[in-house]
Design brief:
By secondary structure, the chain is of the alpha/beta class. It has 2 domains: about 5-150 and about 290-340, Quinone Oxidoreductase, Chain A, domain 1 (Alpha-Beta Complex), CATH 3.90.180; about 160-285, Rossmann fold (3-Layer(aba) Sandwich), CATH 3.40.50. The protein has 11 helices and 17 strands. Helix 4 crosses helix 5 (about 175-185) and helix 5 runs parallel beside helix 6. The two termini are about 20 Å apart. The protein binds nicotinamide-adenine-dinucleotide (NAD) and zinc ion (2 copies). One zinc ion binds next to helix 2.
């Protein structure tokens, strides 16, 4: 066998599902037989031509699970047939940042399905050191959530979220919903979320939010009302809107923390009151993707059923219908995740 099926994004908004050569593997790589791949917000940006356009033609897909089909000559620790998920962030592995698990700061970083071909295909090649064996009895539909869950694990870690903290989250999209669940796990209280969509608010409440606000005019009074008039200990922006970043500082208590998470266009800025930040001892920190220990932790939490995944597992399309899966996303807000079933 020398070819496989792959969904190649040839130009923005246009997938071509066709036979392509199997990806070659180096001595330190493995070839993964893909079982299932989730569609992520980043894939939607790539599909629409707003991100990684210079990479086209590209096989996207980075939220996947599968089994080892072939090992590179130097790979000893993974047997053929082992079920795996993959840390998609490929750094050099040896630089200052890679050693600190800040792989996205590595000068050589690339990501599977974003900077190089990914998993909307029968097979994907990845460095063996980034393939994580899955021992738990966990459904593929849940396992493919490892990557997005790793993102909220990292966000919680970087924000040093802990029990008893009040949290406000802008956005109850797929990732906002996972932030809500992650904040439940760390014991945050209360957890307040805002989303323009009443449906997304309803799902956030089901996921464990204490309050969900769909009317922007009610956000401030709700946050203040539920935090003793102080504002939240932690505010997470999970929309990617400059105006919301600006508002985030007003919804944070004195000495609180703003988590920079939602992705804006390059170069967007917010004014920050320097003196106020100094005197109040305010803080902010970014967090990007999930890598290293974040991925392991996400897998552990999912393996032990710590995330409610019903709203993430109901929409599934075969690879041949990937174009339709992408084209209909905006009509299906009730599906927090759409998945592509690759191996049948
Ligand atoms: N930093 C990271 O590691 C990381 C990882 C994954 C995603 N992201 C980013 O996080 C954000 C959230 O991801 P997602 O997949 O849930 O995105 P999404 O676009 O699917 O969902 C965003 C949600 O925000 C809501 N929204 C839009 N405008 C709003 C407003 N003014 N007020 C309140 N809610 C509003 C929408 O109704 C939607 O439900 C995106 O910007 C994404 O790019 C960051
Ligand atoms: Zn993703
Ligand atoms: Zn590096």
């Amino acid at each position: 066998m020398s070819t496989m099926r792959a969904a190649v994004l040839t130009t923005p908004k246009c997938f071509d599902v066709r036979e392509v050569p199997l990806p070659p593997i180096g001595p330190e790589d493995v070839l993964v037989r893909v079982q299932r791949t989730g569609i992520c917000g980043t894939d939607i940006h790539i599909f629409n031509g707003h991100y990684a356009v210079d990479r086209l033609p590209l096989i996207p897909g980075h939220e996947f699970c599968g089994t080892i089909a072939e090992r590179g000559a130097n790979v000893r620790h993974l047997a053929v047939g082992t079920r795996v998920v993959v840390d998609i962030n490929i750094g050099c592995g040896t630089c200052f940042w890679c050693r600190r698990n800040e792989v996205l700061n590595c000068a050589e970083v690339t990501q599977v399905g974003i900077g190089r071909d990914g998993a909307f295909a029968d097979y994907v090649a990845v460095p063996a050191r980034l393939a994580i064996p899955v021992e738990a009895d966990i459904a593929d539909e849940v396992l493919v959530l490892t990557e997005p869950v790793a993102c909220v694990v990292r966000a919680a870690r970087k924000a040093r979220a802990t029990f008893g903290q009040s949290v406000f989250i802008f956005g109850a999209g797929p990732i906002g919903n996972l932030h809500v669940q992650m904040m439940r796990l760390v014991g945050a209280a209360p957890i307040i979320v805002a989303d323009l969509s009443a449906e997304r608010c309803r799902m956030a409440l089901e996921a464990g939010a204490d309050a969900a606000v769909s009317d922007p005019a009610l956000v401030k009074q709700t946050v203040l009302g539920m935090t003793g008039g102080r504002g939240a200990d932690l505010v997470i922006e999970s929309v990617g809107n400059r105006k919301l970043y600006e508002q985030a500082f007003d919804l944070t208590r004195r000495g609180g923390h703003v988590a920079f998470f939602g992705i804006t266009s390059p170069g967007e800025t917010v004014p920050i009151d320097i003196l106020r930040t100094v005197l109040e001892e305010g803080s902010l920190k970014g967090s990007v993707a999930g890598m290293g220990e974040d991925v392991h932790d996400a897998l552990t939490l999912l393996s032990h059923g710590r995330f409610r995944t019903d709203d993430f597992t109901k929409a599934s399309y075969p690879l041949e219908r990937i174009q339709e899966a992408f084209a209909t996303l905006s009509e299906r807000p009730q599906h927090l995740k759409t998945q592509i079933a690759i191996a049948t």
